[in-house]
Amino acid sequence: MLRESLIFVGTCDIAGHVRGKGFPARELDARRRKGVGWTHSNLMQSAFGDIFQTPFGTGGDLMIVPDPDAAVHVDFEDGSAPEHFMLGDIRNTDGTPWECCPREFLRRAIAAVREAAGLDVLATFEQEFVYTGNEARPGDSYALGAFRRQGVFGEAFVAALRAAGVTPDSFLAEYGARQFEVTVAPAQALHAADQAVITREMARATAHRLGHRAVFSPMPVPDGVGNGVHVHFSLWDEQGRPAMHDPQGDRGLGAAAARFAAGLLHHLPAIAAITAPSPVSYLRLTPNRWAPTAIDLARQDRGAALRICPVFAAAGPEEAAAQFNLEFRVADGTASPYMVLGALLFAGADGLRRGLSIPTGDAAALPRSLSEALDRMADSEAVATWFGPTFRDAYLMHKRAELAHVGDLAAAELCRRYAEVY
What we know:
Helix content is 37%, strand content 20%.
């Protein structure tokens, strides 16, 4: 069959979907500068594809410009077309960044951390999903049997990750029915978010070629185990030295780490609308689901919103400091990784800048619904500053319109709808 190679250029938007356009691969050199045409209201596409409301109308032109550092070409060697795509930035037609670009939101957050304390962030996303090609059996949690019955999916998935330039760390059968988890090596913040997007798409691409799906919805069924996204992150100074750990500090946290964590906890009621941005997110964030319900920091507690992770078999202080990291657990696969990490970094940067302290006493509860989280976000002057008025208002409109669209659905139907699209 006659074929011509195509490349897809896209962005992971505020609905957490990768959207964009394809073009002939032979045009790549020209597209590196001009990208593909886009429009403002494309940002307002919901999880389900509809544009329920938009502040932008039908006017305006933009472009998605590919980033060569976020390029993927994976040939599964099964006769199917290769996965050939590039992640990019939404820009104005003069080439300047568009104020509502999710990737630019993260870039601004990275700059805020550097400005506040001269620090960089390394991060990685630990992602859970349901693989529909596996049979659900009692007792399968973390079991060799569940690992065996997924067949070649795991091997093909890990090979696809490596071919896409992502370094796999682990792949395992998780606690829930047909649930798996994947972790990859940490990277600098922007690249870490790119890797998170690529990891999801490689899971979906692999499952698709095997006739199945990888479902990243936070609650595929209302009475099951949720799929979380856990963001591990650490701070590093300008000389490339770890800046998180102090053996004499409170719970092993250095001064910068404590202030960063304090900022994150302080702003968590507002940024939950960004990191857990769907109605089904809040079906997961309930008691007895191994998911956070309170705004807390704890050492090695998988029910905490912010977890101090263990250091394994460190040979000395330097290795311990390099391993030391925090894990943010109030996130899921309905969120754009750029938005998640950007929100964390902006909140942490505010803690660094203001010298905030980790709160003591009883922890406050997380928002119990998307509606509550959106109200907290709308009331936050800090979030408004991070976004800018246009992006903040567009984000709130997008999420409130989506919430209204599914607001009358029972839990089972709500979970089914989101499992269809994530």
